[in-house]
Amino acid sequence: MEPAQALRADARHNRVRILEAAREAFATRGLDVPMAAIARRAGIGVATLYRRFPSRESLITEVFGDELATCASVVDEALADPDPWRGFCSAIEKVCTMQVADRGFTDAFLTAFPDAIDYERTRVRAEQGFAEVTRRAKAAGRLRADFDLADLTLLLKANCGVATGTSEAAAAGSRRLVAYLLQSFRAEHAEPLPPAPPLTLDFLYGSATVR
């Protein structure tokens, strides 16, 4: 893929249109939307799209690279917070807000892109960082001891359910849901729960390698 600064003015314009069209298409139709549909939305030919982005993977990782970096920063901030419980809650709240704002990003985050090395490193760092945020909150006695990372999958799945309708209603529903669940995650007065299901983040979207 050519560096953006090296492209002619018209090519740079096409590149911007492609990224905007792809973002909209991924958010509404998922990562499997045909490349031809993205080209039509951008008002260009399929050949032009493939000259700028030779694979679906290269397009997806370019579209969502900034959001992934933001997600990793959210986890880094939680790790830096001297209050483990506050850091845990903040990470949950911010990630769920991102999920509602751009549902396409959640799908991209959960999909493996083995050829996009920097993207994959950032994604793995975010996942491992959240596991450490969880461990610290438990060690501080604030997060219930039986919280499992599978519960994060359940939370995000539930949040997907309210991320429908108007953006205002979805955001309000997400805030309410997350507040309820964070209260249930507190260690104080925690009642026993059924065993955690064998779920990973891949469960949300049937994550698979994109080619």
Protein model, in words:
This protein has 9 helices and no strands. The chain is 67% helix and 0% strand. The protein is mainly α and 211 residues long. Helix 1 packs across helix 4 (56-80) and helix 5 packs across helix 7. The chain has 2 domains: 1-54, Arc Repressor Mutant, subunit A (Orthogonal Bundle); 59-204, Tetracycline Repressor, domain 2. It is elongated and about 60 Å long.
Number of domains: 2
Oligomerization status of the protein chains: single chain
By secondary-structure content and strand pairing, the structural class works out as mainly alpha
Q: Compute the gyration radius: what is it?
A: 19 Å
Q: Roughly how many Å apart are the termini? A: 16 Å
Share of helix, binned: 55-70%
Low-confidence stretches: 203-211
Annotated CATH architecture of the largest domain: Orthogonal Bundle
Average pLDDT, to the nearest integer?
Answer: 86
Strand content: under 5%
Number of strands: 0
What best-fitting shape do the alpha-carbon axes yield? Answer: elongated
User: If helices are DSSP runs of H or I spanning 4 or more residues, what is the number of helices?
Assistant: 9
| Helix/strand order | HHHHHHHHH
Query: Mind describing the biggest β-sheet?
Result: none
List the helices and strands and how they pair.
Elements (H helix, E strand, L loop, with lengths): L8 H21 L5 H8 L3 H7 L3 H25 L3 H18 L1 H7 L7 H23 L9 H14 L4 H19 L26
Helix pairs in contact: 1-2, 1-4, 4-5, 4-7, 5-6, 5-7, 5-9, 8-9
